[in-house]
Amino acid sequence: MAATAGVGAAAAFGLPAAPTRAAAPAAGKQAPGFYRYKVGDIEVTVVTDGARVFPLPDDMVSNVKKEEVNKALEAAYMPKDQMTIVFNPVVINTGSKLVLIDTGNGPDAFKQSNGAVGAVPTNLAAAGIDPKQIDMVIISHFHGDHVNGLLTADGQPAYPNAEVTVPAAEWKFWMDDGEMSRAPKGRMEGLFKNNRRVFDPIKSKVTQYEWKKEVAPGVTAIESVGHTPGHTSYVISSGGKSVFVQSDVTNHPALFVRHPDWHLTFDQDAKKAEETRRKVYDMVSAEKMPVHGFHYPFPSVGHVEKDGSGYRYVPANWSPVL
Amino acid sequence: MAATAGVGAAAAFGLPAAPTRAAAPAAGKQAPGFYRYKVGDIEVTVVTDGARVFPLPDDMVSNVKKEEVNKALEAAYMPKDQMTIVFNPVVINTGSKLVLIDTGNGPDAFKQSNGAVGAVPTNLAAAGIDPKQIDMVIISHFHGDHVNGLLTADGQPAYPNAEVTVPAAEWKFWMDDGEMSRAPKGRMEGLFKNNRRVFDPIKSKVTQYEWKKEVAPGVTAIESVGHTPGHTSYVISSGGKSVFVQSDVTNHPALFVRHPDWHLTFDQDAKKAEETRRKVYDMVSAEKMPVHGFHYPFPSVGHVEKDGSGYRYVPANWSPVL
Q1: Is residue A24, in this structure, part of any structural domain at all?
Q2: Which of A10, A13, A42, A63 is geometrically suited to a Cys-Cys bond with A238, CB 3.0 to 4.6 A?
Q3: Residue B167 — φ and ψ, nearest 5°?
Q4: Closest partner residue to B297 among A48, A133, A317, by Cβ?
Q5: What is the pLDDT of residue B9?
């Protein structure tokens, strides 16, 4: 109404009617969520599954007061009383295999979140990758944000030509009926049920892998338990270069890289997770090895360095060319 | 050859011939170089012009030994003896105007660099922005990486429907024949000539702006001289949110945010540039105002905080949605 009145006034005074809108409307849309880098001859494509934004739960960090968590969020220029968790799988072209590590939150979450998460298929398409081309899916651990993307909305294999390979220790724990019967009601029982839902339809495609072995050419599985009993990280190596794909050794670096002694509510064995965290970060900081974190801000690759009693995450410089 | 031999051996032994290449060839191409964020109601699109990679010049930092510069590069996990400079203009949709701040290295540099720089037109297209839609081009200062994109390869206005607005102090200096006659041969004389080459064909479109004034709705020009005599930064403000578009207050943050006392060889008045740098960073760090840096790693937006005798750049978290 104000704009219309303005145009009228301009006309009444014989002034030119200035345009009140840019010729181009606001785009209202983010750039596609993929990013590429090389590790020697291996081509890595980080593909985001999106982000969940939610009120900060009281127990996000189980051994620290919410007030302390808020301080850490504000120190990282993030809003207080709010948590943003991002999910960033990687595709690795080893030259002989096209490998996806972890699959995102899947089609149900995509629907429920109005596309905020479950965006791996969208961003794979933006990156020019056809799910049919994926030769292997490597799963780091059996939480929903890593396994739920294995199935399409109608319960079919999302990567129809892929072998799905999982940590032997993770399979043993989550597929054990005894463990399931002893699981606390609620989240833990839900995870057991979800893993049966996801893996039952694709059982014939599933293989198990052991730690310290090459899972795919140039991709070695590394034990990094605590977050789950079979939680696995990877070293990708080629041509004398390496990157440490940490999976969920930590969630958001502003909280848990900065404060390795903080216990994420989702860490199943929090003490063990902390031990793993320190071991991994002492190693990568000493060796100056780049780290990819599934829950690090996209494109989720950088360095971790020691800083006081904790560590600091230094994101890699975005390169406009590959 | 080795792969062929392998297939032959597999056949000879009656083994299945394993594929020796991924079904999908390596993409070999980076994601498009644009990124969006909101400042209140204003939509900002960072559009990269690309990166120059070159051997570290002895005098990159005029008042510090090359050895010290190499230490800073290595501390930032960048290769020593090599410099990478990136160029990241922004497009601002204010709701009433579509505004481009600075234009990149232009078509000649695009050709000479095989597309490594001069990529603004490519990335504008990727972002869905037609150069004809740009209502205004704001120039921060008269260096080639900021003004050369004003013309197309055949010397026509690259933004045919745009007013081109420039700092009055910058125009005064570079268009002054006396200043030009006193300029040292080489780089400085070249800059004077280049500015005449660029601005002559579009003179009728050029307006001049003053500091402390709104140049476009929500975009206020801020004096930040030293790098050049009329060097300008901007505060973009809307709905109680602001971002400080610093232009070239510093070049790469790993060198000059970290070490504000280091003098970039391209800073025309190095002492004044240092003074401006400290003033700007003291302000933005105290106010926790986000900063966009033309030469910061893409997407070039984050916070600057005090750290010892210098500052530290903390990149913003990439958001998968707008």
Answers
A1: no
A2: A42
A3: -65, 130
A4: A317
A5: 41
Q: Which residues of A touch B33 (CB under 8 A)?
A: 320
CB contact at 8 A, A31 and B31: yes
The per-residue pLDDT for range A177-211, each reduced to its tens digit, is 999 999 999 999 999 999 999 999 999 999 999 99
> Rounded to 5 degrees, what are φ and ψ at A267?
-75, 115
What are the pLDDT digits (tens) for B247-261? 999 999 999 999 999
pLDDT average, residue stretch B58-85: 97
| Total number of domains constituting chain B | 1
Written as six digits, the tokens of A210 are 């052991």
Q: What is the mean pLDDT of chain B?
A: 94
Residue B256: both structure tokens together = 């000059």
Q: CA of B320 to nearest chain A CA: how many angstroms apart? A: 6
Beta carbons of A27 and B127 less than 8 Å apart:
yes
Beta bridge partners of A55: A82
In a domain, B15, yes or no: no
Is there a contact between A78 and B48 if contact means CB atoms under 8 Å apart?
A: no
Task: Give the integer Cα–Cα distance in Å for A317 and B298.
Answer: 7
CB contact under 8 A, A51 and B27: no
User: Which of A20, A251, A319 should we substitute to test contact with B (largest number of B Cβ atoms within 10 Å)?
Assistant: A319
Residues of A in contact with B104 (CB under 8 A): none
> How close B35 gets to chain A, by Cα (Å)?
6
Structural contact between residues B322 and A28, judged by C-beta atoms closer than 8 angstroms: yes
Residue A119 DSSP label: -
Which stretches does DSSP call E strand in B5-140? Answer: 34-39, 42-47, 50-55, 82-87, 90-93, 98-101, 136-138
**pTM for this predicted structure:** 0.93
Q: Would you list the DSSP string of A61-118?
A: BTTS-HHHHHHHHHHTT--TTEEEEEE--EEEE-SS-EEEE---SHHHHHHHTTTSB-
Q: Residue A152 sits in which domain range?
A: 31-315
Across the interface, of A28, A78, A303, the residue whose CB is closest to B77 is A303
Q: Which residue, among B253, B248, B242, has the nearest Cα to B289 in the 3D structure?
A: B242
Residue A211 lies in a domain: yes
B8 inside domain: no
Per DSSP, the residues of B187-232 read HHHHHHHHHHHHHGGGGGGEEEE-TTSEEETTEEEEE--SSSTT-E
Query: Cβ separation of B45 and A29 shorter than 8 Å?
Result: no
pLDDT attached to residue B104:
98
Dist. CA B147–CA B114, nearest whole Å = 19
Please report the ipTM that was assigned to this predicted complex: 0.92
Residue A322 C-alpha, separation from nearest chain B C-alpha, in angstroms: 5
**CB contacts < 8 A (A, B):** 155
Residue for token digits 């950088």? A302
Which tokens is B136 given? Answer: 């205004």
Exposed e or buried b per residue across B27-42, where buried means at least 16 C-beta atoms within 10 angstroms of its C-beta: beebbbbbbbbbbeeb
Average pLDDT over residues B231-254: 98
CA distance B266 to chain A (A): 22
> Can you tell me the distance from the alpha carbon of A205 to that of A150, in angstroms, rounded to the nearest whole number?
11
Evaluate whether A121 touches A106 at the Cβ level (below 8 Å): no
Whose tokens are 């293989």? That residue is A207
Contact B43 A26 (CB under 8 A): yes
